[in-house]
Amino acid sequence: MRDEPASLTNSEPYAFVAAGEGLASPRDYFELLKPRVMSLVIFTALVGLVRAPGDVHPVIAFTALLCIAVGAGAAGALNMWWDADIDAIMSRTRKRPVPSGRVSAREALAFGLTLSAFSVVVLGLLVNALAGALLAFTIFFYVVIYTMWLKRSTPQNIVIGGAAGAFPPLVAWAAASGTVSLEPVLLFAIIFFWTPPHFWALALYRADDYARAGVPMLPVTAGPDETRLQILLYTLFLVPLAASPSVLGYAGYAYGAVAVLAGAWMITLAWRVFRRREGETAVRAAKSLFGFSIVYLFALFATLLGEAVIGGLLR
Amino acid sequence: MNAGKKMPRPPEEEGVVLTPEQLRRRRARNIAIASVLGFLAVLFYVVTIVKLGPNVLNRPL
Q1: Complex ipTM value
Q2: Looking at beta carbons, which residues of chain A come within 8 Å of B43?
Q3: Which residues on A lie below 8 Å from B46 (Cβ)?
Q4: Exposed e or buried b for every residue in A251-270, given b needs 16+ CB within 10 A?
Q5: Scanning A207, B3, B21, B37, which has its CA 20 to 30 A from the CA of A49?
Q6: What is the dihedral of CA B20, B24, B30, B35, to 10 degrees?
Q7: Where is the chain membrane-spanning (chain A) (predicted)?
Q8: Which residue in chain B is spatially nearest to A9 when comparing CA positions?
């Protein structure tokens, strides 16, 4: 059959060319890992690793961090495999490797599954089983619970799904200490309650995109005003929660000061989003809150990291 | 087809002919995979030494 030209494109050995496979560069595969999300994961995991009790060898700590980063990236690749159809519709995501045709869906799936399995097994074997199990659950939660189930079915998608992004410091803490205590659960809770106001601020000025793709984000289903109220309520809950490590004695005065000052600015920006509902000023308010929410989370975790490092040096 | 007899084909019709850009990307992928494998070999070696410590020399013959 292979002697017949017409069969060339249909026969199995050539099917991958027809599907656009084998055309990707390493950079395209790297993009599948969602490097910007991965950088936040690495940073928050580093904080969990440094603050955990006990001494962990730097090589083991590096291995743990690498596995958590690769696991998070693998979950991102599986997310891009599953969501390629809606990514192609939304302007924010249409240039991603799968919808743009640089990587086929089959390649993204294989890449994500391989890295998921590898990161979990390596973390479990080289670091400890609890950390490996938690990483496996994180990947499962992000891919199956959030991406496959919640994202297209409920406006609470990013509220519940936000747990996946909150797990890394917990996994890192387990990797360093072999246990989980209240402090890493607080770190988890801070990221968990930070996620809704962060994402809904973005969704407010990307609502058309989400509506076109059929993703039931809160501004699409409940309207922008209800979203603004929810952003304010979540921020009012988040700010005292973020200050609680200082109150409970887990963090020092520097952290307390940053949590209060940056938290006050978060509430101010959330209030502006709540009040400014029309035109360009409303969009600007939402963009300001979205941008500062990233700075806010970074400032909190950077201070926690700084306190731990300085405390370690003074010991 | 052809009652079991295979007709010889000209070399240019054999398989998929990749463009220079595809060849470049394949080479870049190969280098990336080789680098990752090399890095993992070093990492596993170092982690083994770290985990076993002095016991790495304890090898009864």
Answers
A1: 0.80
A2: 63, 66
A3: 59
A4: bbeebbebbeebbebbeebb
A5: B37
A6: 170
A7: 37-54, 60-82, 103-123, 129-150, 157-179, 185-205, 231-248, 254-274, 294-314
A8: B16
CATH class as words, domain A22-179: mainly alpha
Q: What is the pLDDT of residues A75-105, one digit of tens each?
A: 999 999 999 999 999 988 999 999 999 999 9
The letter for the amino acid at A263 is G
- Yes or no: say if A59 and A15 are a contact pair by the CB < 8 Å rule: no
Tell me how many residue pairs between chain A and chain B have CB atoms under 8 A apart. 38
User: What is the residue whose two structure tokens read 């809704």?
Assistant: A196
Q: Rounded to 10 degrees, what is the CA torsion of A246, A252, A253, A258? A: -70
Q: Does A6 touch chain B (CB under 8 A)?
A: no
Model confidence over A140-185: pLDDT tens digits?
Answer: 999 999 999 999 999 999 899 889 999 999 999 999 999 999 999 9
Sign of dihedral through CA atoms B26, B29, B34, B35?
positive
pTM: 0.86
Which value, to the nearest 10 degrees, does the dihedral of the CA atoms of residues A100, A102, A106, A111 take?
-120
CB A309 within 8 A of CB A268: no
Spell out the residues 6+ positions from residue A150 whose beta carbon is closer than 8 angstroms to its own.
A156, A157, A160, A161
Q: Nearest Cβ partner of A26 from B29, B43, B50? A: B29
Retrieve residue A96's tokens.
Answer: 């991603």
Give alpha helix (H) positions in chain A: 12-18, 26-32, 35-51, 58-82, 84-87, 105-126, 129-140, 157-166, 168-177, 182-205, 207-213, 218-221, 224-247, 253-275, 279-314
In this structure, what are the phi and psi dihedrals at residue A33, rounded to the nearest 5 degrees? -80, 0
Each domain of chain A, given as residue ranges in start order, spans: 22-179, 181-315
Whether A249 contacts chain B with CB within 8 A: no
Contact A166, A224 (CB under 8 A): no
CA distance A237 to chain B (A): 43
**A14 shares contact with chain B (CB less than 8 Å):** yes
CB spacing of B16 vs A60 below 8 angstroms = no
